[in-house]
Design goal:
The complex is a heterodimer. Chain A contains eleven helices and two strands, in the order ααααββααααααα. Chain A is mainly alpha-helical. A two-stranded antiparallel sheet of chain A has the order 1-2.
């Protein structure tokens, strides 16, 4: 259960990035998984140079921000007002590009980051230190994002663009800058989540897509476009994964997850938290 | 209803001519290449009915290919059903599933629908992986004796090839008829503005569900042929999301909502992929290069190759649809 919560926090972090991009830009970012995978390898590279992956988080965040902004201008700026299909496919092409290069450099063999922070034992319950660290960092980053969105002027601009882009532009907000920044933040969060997940599970360059699909489920659960709903969705998913494995065959979990996805979309497309942005 | 004009006849003739060559020369390598091209054309053209005409982005469309494939495979494997019957059964089951599913998920619009279809594909895949009765995640292998009824494995391969050729032509003709019928007009009205279509008296719910079922019917049959020819079926191959996205790519590349679009898109895509995979230099980078090409098409040719040609060369417009 506690393991599930800690895992859920990281899933939530990954999904927040996806949700922020959807909320602000109305773009389903299919390169999300590629960014997660990239984050995993960024953490791996840092680790091979002797940097503790947890201390490397600020670096990964910065790298993700820069890459995200770059991708925005290359792949999205021209078609931001086009129908969804165009942006879906352009982000998918970015994903193909990243994964293609990644496969070329790292092949598809599994990697793992062997970092240990000991463990804490309560009675018969053992929690690995790495999981606690990832959980704490995820919470810290979520709080940071909250402060940014709700307490700073730039964050206010991001929220304004997500509510109504035309109106925001008329109020003198440089929407291009905000859109680029949002995509950058989304990518940065994805990469960081990837880096954190890499310290728990082994990974390959293709692993990102698994977490991307999980992120979709989480976003839908928490409400598409509602960044903090994603955290709740992440927690639910993390707990389902950990608790359900005790009861049923673990292979059936994806089936349950995606059934939940479709059912929630049909019955309550605004997510379990309701429709606020 | 209009009679098929020159705009569709040239496509059919081209497919027939290219399709006959492997049969005349008996060239097996060529047959495999043409089979793949036909498969892509048929998949992309069926997807075009829901994606191009109706404007609904079915992202997990490959689920119907998998459902049809599994239906046919189980029939052949357990009951020794003839491939042609099994193929039709595969198509019918896929269409029925799509119709029933459509009642629910076609209520969703835009990106919500796209995500739901991904969810459906992944859910079905996970379910099949856990059904040990149909092989679980290991899949099923056909007993070689099955092919004896068709005069040996080699003849069965040729039979699959001819079936695929016929099916591709059927898909192109259907695609043309739908576009030029009242039904197609209704679908395009939904694509342009669904609410306006409702006001104009289009029974949007039935139209959408029928379009979805029709665009699932052919992939169901294609899956049946492909896996019969392949001799083995696995969830990973049957519900492969990447192929689903490749189908969308082919439609976009050739020209969204046009009869000739998916045809050209599929041919160009298969050739480019083939060349990239063959060349020593690009073999390892083919994914990255496909990504760049896809991006360029989306950014600079939003209406696809055929849309672009139609805009630039006006006299050709009469012959393209």
């Amino acid at each position: 259960m506690i393991n599930g919560i800690l895992l859920g926090l990281v899933y939530g972090l990954a999904a927040i990035g996806l949700n922020l991009i959807w909320g602000v830009m109305r773009v389903i970012n299919l390169s999300h998984g590629a960014f997660i995978a990239l984050g995993m390898f960024a953490a791996y590279l840092l680790f091979t140079y002797g940097v503790n992956p947890y201390l490397g988080v600020p670096f990964i965040l910065l790298l993700g921000l820069i890459l995200g902004i770059l991708v925005y201008f290359v792949a999205l700026h021209r078609i931001i007002d086009a129908p969804e299909l165009s942006t879906l496919l352009s982000t998918f092409s970015v994903s193909l590009f990243i994964i293609g290069i990644g496969t070329f450099v790292w092949t598809t063999t599994p990697y793992a980051i062997d970092v240990s922070l000991g463990s804490i034992t309560f009675g018969n319950l053992t929690i690995l230190g790495t999981r606690i660290a990832t959980g704490l960092i995820s919470i810290a980053l979520t709080i940071l994002l909250y402060v940014f969105l709700y307490k700073t002027k730039l964050g206010k601009a991001v929220r304004a663009v997500s509510m109504n882009r035309t109106a925001a532009e008329l109020m003198g907000i440089n929407t291009t800058k905000i859109l680029a920044l949002s995509f950058g933040i989304g990518a940065a969060l994805a990469m960081t989540a990837g880096g954190l997940i890499a310290t728990i599970f082994p990974f390959t360059i293709l692993s990102g897509s698994v977490y991307e699909l999980k992120s979709f489920v989480i976003c839908v659960l928490g409400g598409l476009g509602n960044p903090f709903g994603a955290l709740i969705g992440g927690l639910i998913l993390g707990i389902i994964e950990n608790v359900a494995t005790l009861q049923i065959q673990s292979g059936l979990i994806p089936f349950i997850e995606f059934t939940i996805l479709v059912v929630v979309l049909l019955l309550k497309p605004t997510g379990i938290l309701g429709g606020e942005t | 209803m209009r009679k098929p004009g020159i705009s569709v006849i040239w496509i059919i003739l081209l497919i027939l001519v290219v399709g006959i060559i492997p049969a005349l020369t008996g060239n097996i390598i060529l047959r495999e290449t043409v089979f793949l091209i036909l498969l892509y054309i048929a998949l992309a053209s069926s997807l075009n009915i829901i994606l191009g005409y109706t404007g609904y982005v079915s992202f997990g469309h490959i689920v119907f290919y998998g459902i049809g494939g599994y239906t046919a495979f189980v029939l052949i494997d357990s009951f020794g059903t003839n491939i042609i019957l099994a193929m039709i059964a595969g198509g019918v089951v896929a269409a029925l599933v799509a119709y029933a599913l459509g009642q629910a998920i076609l209520k969703l619009r835009g990106a919500y629908f796209a995500i739901a279809t991904i969810g459906v594909n992944e859910a079905v895949k996970a379910l099949v992986e856990n059904l040990e009765q149909i092989g679980g995640s290991e899949g099923i292998f056909l007993n070689v004796n099955v092919y004896k009824a068709y005069g040996g494995a080699e003849n069965a391969l040729w039979l699959s090839y001819y079936l695929m050729l016929l099916l591709t032509i059927a898909v192109i003709l259907t695609s043309w008829y739908v576009k030029n019928s009242k039904f197609g007009l209704g679908l395009m009205a939904i694509r342009e503005d669904e609410d306006a279509a409702i006001v104009a008296g289009v029974n949007t719910k039935t139209y959408k569900c029928l379009a979805y079922a029709l665009s699932a019917f052919f992939p169901g049959m294609i899956g049946a042929i492909f896996f019969f020819k392949n001799g083995n079926i696995e969830p990973v191959n049957a519900f492969n999301l990447t192929l689903s996205i490749e189908m969308i790519f082919m439609v976009m590349l050739g020209g969204f909502g046009m009869v000739s679009g998916p045809f050209i898109g599929a041919v160009v895509y298969e050739r480019v992929r083939g060349i990239l995979l063959m060349s020593e230099m690009f073999k390892d980078l083919h994914m990255a290069i496909s990504g760049v090409l896809l991006l360029l098409v989306i950014l600079f040719m939003p209406r696809g190759i055929m849309g672009y040609v139609k805009d630039k060369v006006t006299w050709i417009g009469r012959y393209l649809e």
